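pinned: reference chain
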Amino acid sequence: MNPQQKYWYVAITYRKERIIKRELDKLQVRNFLPLRRVFKEINGKKKRVWELVMSGYVFIYTDHKTSYHLTQTIGLSMRYLKDPVTHRPVTIPEKQMRDFITLFRLSEEQAQLVPCDLKRGDRVRIIRGLFMGIEGELVRLQGHKRVLVRLNNIAAMATAYIPAAYLEHIE
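pinned: its structure tokens
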């Protein structure tokens, strides 16, 4: 791991996601907190609010030194998700995280957050349409072909139906 290279780290936040995001924003550290606008009934009135979709996680784009500094020196109440084999922090490649964020920001009709325990499928790239350039795994959900972008056993986003003609196989 190159110490100056930036990666997406997965921070476990102990239910303090919004506080940690606010602190990261103040420090001008790029981050992503999975929130969606939903309608909730509050005091008998429907209000549109931001709802946390992936409780307990904040994704942080930084280098190794800064990632250490955030937890040890500044003392943000979080730790990084570790690989069970290497015991090193899990990092997500830039392209994979960009694809995940792109899908996440779409409406729930176009892309869904799905359990990440799906194992089968070919690696594919979408070559036409709204999702052009997205790479992921071909899966069948709710009777339709979809492309799944998975974040190392943390979460996954699936596109809406994708025609086979819009896909190309990648290695």
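why pinned: The chain has two domains: 7-92, 94-169. The chain has three helices and 13 strands.
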